[in-house]
Structures are given as structure tokens and as C-alpha cells.
Amino acid sequence: MAKGHRSQIKRERNANKDTRPSAKLSYARVSVTKACFVLDAIRGKDLETALAVVTYNPRYASSLVKKLLESAAANAENNNGMKRENLYVAECYANKGPTMKRVRPRAQGRAYRIEKRMSHITVVLDERK
């Protein structure tokens, strides 16, 4: 059991909260490995360079990541009062989501399973000092 009053526990939990601007896309219909190819290309880069990379990347996941970057940048400007030109991609990662299972009929009455994987993609921005 946690010690202290409920409001005190909530206050301590909120004090440790990450204040960096971020955006999260849940249940994206792309596998984690395919999303990571795009995320690895933009990790650590400044915002304008990262947007340029995902704009001209032919992968499907890059269109999803571009929307996330723009959303995180808008969060930084409107909620945190940060300047857009000082932002960079501090963290970006994809976690495994649920998998849809489908069946593919095969020869002689067999059935092969098809797994349609999903992922949860998160982009965290920060301001360069």
C-alpha cells in the first residue's frame, strides 16, 4: 500500500511527470519493425530536418510519423510556449500493439494464419538549449 493521503500521492505522481511535448498514435496499422525504420532515420535530428526526411521517405509509416511530428510541434508551441526552430526529436519509439489474426485457406483443407500487426508510435520533442 502507498503511504500518505490520496491527494498527496497524486501530487507526487504529477511532480514526476514528463513535461516535454509529445504526440502518440495508438493502434497504427503498421508493424513495429517497419515503423522503426522511419523512426531510426529521424531520432536526434532537429524538427525541420526530420520533417524533410519523412516527407520524401517512400515508406507508409513515414506519413504517420509526419502527422505525429506536426502534432507534437503544435503541442510544443501552443501548450508549452516553445519556439519551433529550437525543437528536436528527443525520443521516438514504437511499441507492440494488438495483433489481428486472420485465416488464409490453403491446399488440402489446411489453413494458414495471417497476423496483421499493430503498433503504438510515440514522438517526444525537446528544445535545444
UniProtKB/TrEMBL annotation:
UniProt KW keywords: Ribonucleoprotein, Ribosomal protein, RNA-binding, rRNA-binding
A Pfam family this chain is assigned to: Ribosomal_L22
GO biological process: translation
Alphabetical list of InterPro entries matching this protein: Ribosomal_uL22 (IPR001063), Ribosomal_uL22_bac/chlpt-type (IPR005727), Ribosomal_uL22_bac/org-type (IPR047867), Ribosomal_uL22_CS (IPR018260), Ribosomal_uL22_sf (IPR036394)
Region of interest: Disordered: 1-22
Record PROSITE patterns: RIBOSOMAL_L22 (PS00464)
CDD domains: Ribosomal_L22 (cd00336)
Biased composition annotated in UniProt, kind: Basic and acidic residues: 9-21
Molecular function, one GO term: structural constituent of ribosome
A GO term from the CC aspect: cytosolic large ribosomal subunit
Subunit structure: Part of the 50S ribosomal subunit.
Similarity remark: Belongs to the universal ribosomal protein uL22 family.
NCBIfam families hit by this protein: rplV_bact
Task performed by this protein: This protein binds specifically to 23S rRNA; its binding is stimulated by other ribosomal proteins, e.g. L4, L17, and L20. It is important during the early stages of 50S assembly. It makes multiple contacts with different domains of the 23S rRNA in the assembled 50S subunit and ribosome.
Protein's UniProt name: Large ribosomal subunit protein uL22
Organism for this UniProt entry: Gallintestinimicrobium propionicum
